[in-house]
Amino acid sequence: MFYWVVKAIIWPILRFVFRPWAEGVENVPKEGPVILAGNHLSFADHFFGAGFLPRKVISLGKAEYFTGRGVKGLVSRAFFSGVGTVPIDRSGGKASEAALRTGLRILKDRQVLGIYPEGTRSPDGRLYKGKTGVARLALESRAPVIPWAMVNTFEMMPPGRPLPKFGIRPGVRYGKPIDFSRYYGMENDRLVLRAVTDEIMYALMELSGQEYVDKYAAAAKTETTRAARENS
Length: 232
Known about the structure:
By secondary structure, the protein is an alpha/beta fold. The chain has one domain. α3 links the parallel β3 (57-62) and β4 (85-88). The chain has 8 helices and 9 strands. The chain has a 7-stranded mixed beta sheet with strand order 1-8-7-2-5-3-4, sandwiched between helices. A two-stranded parallel ribbon has the order 6-9. It comes from Microbispora rosea. InterPro entries: Plipid/glycerol_acylTrfase (IPR002123). This is 1-acyl-sn-glycerol-3-phosphate acyltransferase.
């Protein structure tokens, strides 16, 4: 209920101020489990991507959003709960497996799961290599996968910018469902998981028009930070 209250307040304001646009909304099933697999350009992605849909979109967010103390922690918990975020531990190993199980539980409940295969926001607006967790979710749940491409949100609110720029219209393109039934039962095959993930990322590249980089976004961020330190 809280999700719909927050959406009823925030979405009309966002539509009036930023005039967002959408294509392919009809591609998202109106019922049943759905995986929305998207590029990740900005903190604003989830607001504009989910806003056009009549269904609640649940995303997996880092646990730190929900563990803060005091007034700031309270506001953070209320905010992320209100936009449909479920807390997970993203430290790797067993934590990654727990995140996968959380995603499968959401899909088993026939809900919409929004996931960003890149794992983190793009540092420069390009599309980076996807992690194979999305493929495991797709094959184990057998839920339809809808590529979910954000457009212009990097220019509007790139990582590190606290407030969005005005005058830039953000958009979202929902692609047609991708059929992975030929891979069902093969979710433990690493080559299959990579093939499924790469097919999703290719669909996102076509929808978004982004340049693709065959490396993980987290690695690119580390390289950029290291280079900045060496040059300082």
